[in-house]
Structure to design on (396 residues):
């Protein structure tokens, strides 16, 4: 506790203010109150009560593992080549209605020095791997803190831990999927537009910013409800499904049962919650040398959150869903060497599918961040990506 208070008082900028889960210690990333608040913002934290009701295929009950051996056996069969002579391992069965009441941990920051943009609220959704610290990093915030950067440009930011992550409620790990995340996102955005959880700020415009799994979630949400927002920024995203190596990612994520990998931090989660075991698994999927520092990767690994197999299996499902009803500003921003959505090289494969899926966006901007892989927020040129985002919002 003393360490947490010290960190908050001095606005932590070094690795001394987080704990590495590799040593079995607990983490401050699962608390409602962040370790770090941007000094240029006025911030508040909330537990947002939500009720969601949605339909999705149910995870096949006969394949629910109860130990690490069962998980690995299932993964081996699931990722076998299509013609391999192994028993069929269909992960999902018939569609089912899911309902639940949960609490979502969220933060809202608005600029201390308003410039007229403060009523333009960015709602930020993280992806698989990080929690809401993805947007509000205590590690070298002058380089890796999007919220702080956006505040410097006058924008307000609402960001949250997805259901099952950080300080948010922990639902059944075999239930959580992209459909769950979409239901949560729609509910939160509507609350923000109603003026809830934004203090004295009443949003005049709402932009949805998202990363990776969050971007595919946002893409599907606005394809169904284009009135949900006034602009979207999809990072770590592609509409080209052929660039996503599904079996390769299932293997390179090296899924392990999270409550076994790190019982101190993830002991509150059931066996459906997974995590990769080492920083090198993170680097394989999210970083590309030389556009990152080892210390940055170590921090990012220390802040990882759990994911579920259903999230991993459904994250790219909306890629080829048309967003033809969307007729507002859309920015697609992806790293040049993104391993997850482009199998290592994005140039030449994301532009045309984006235009096909967003034929009526006004405007559609497709940008590639040089040298970066999937983790744009923690690449050495992260502030360059932040500038692309805020310049896009300024212009539109």
């Amino acid at each position: 506790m003393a360490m947490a208070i010290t960190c908050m008082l001095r606005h932590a900028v070094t690795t001394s203010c987080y704990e590495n889960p590799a040593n079995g210690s607990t983490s401050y990333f699962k608390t409602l109150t962040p370790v770090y608040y941007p000094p240029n913002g006025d911030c508040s934290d909330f537990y947002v009560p939500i009720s969601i009701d949605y339909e999705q295929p149910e995870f096949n009950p006969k394949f629910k593992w109860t130990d690490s051996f069962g998980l690995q056996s299932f993964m081996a069969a699931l990722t076998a080549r299509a013609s391999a002579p192994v028993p069929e391992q269909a992960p999902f069965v018939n569609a089912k209605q899911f309902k639940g009441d949960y609490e979502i941990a969220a933060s809202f920051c608005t600029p201390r020095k308003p410039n007229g943009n403060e009523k333009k609220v960015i709602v930020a959704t993280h992806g698989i791997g990080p929690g809401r610290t993805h947007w509000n990093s205590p590690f070298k915030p002058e380089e890796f803190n999007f919220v702080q950067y956006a505040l410097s440009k006058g924008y307000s930011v609402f960001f949250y831990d997805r259901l099952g992550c950080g300080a948010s409620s922990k639902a059944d790990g075999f239930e959580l999927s992209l459909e769950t995340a979409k239901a949560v996102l729609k509910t939160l955005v509507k609350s923000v537009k109603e003026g809830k959880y934004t203090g004295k700020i009443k949003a005049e415009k709402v932009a949805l910013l998202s990363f990776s799994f969050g971007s595919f979630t946002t893409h599907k949400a606005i394809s169904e409800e284009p009135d949900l927002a006034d602009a979207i920024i999809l990072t770590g995203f592609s509409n080209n499904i052929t660039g996503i190596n599904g079996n390769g990612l299932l293997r390179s994520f090296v899924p392990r049962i999270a409550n076994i990998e790190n019982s101190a931090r993830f002991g509150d989660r059931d066996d459906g919650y997974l995590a990769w075991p080492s920083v090198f698994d993170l680097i394989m999927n999210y970083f590309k040398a030389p556009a990152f520092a080892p210390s940055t990767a170590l921090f990012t690994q220390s802040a990882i959150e759990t994911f579920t197999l259903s999230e991993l299996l459904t994250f790219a499902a909306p890629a080829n869903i048309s967003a033809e009803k969307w007729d507002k500003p859309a920015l697609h921003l992806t790293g040049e060497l993104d391993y997850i959505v482009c199998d290592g090289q994005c140039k030449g494969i994301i532009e045309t599918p984006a235009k096909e899926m967003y034929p009526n966006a006004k405007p559609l901007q497709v940008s590639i961040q040089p040298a970066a892989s999937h983790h744009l927020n923690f690449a050495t040129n992260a502030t360059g990506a932040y500038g692309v985002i805020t310049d896009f919002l300024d212009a539109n």
Summary: The chain has one domain: 2-395.
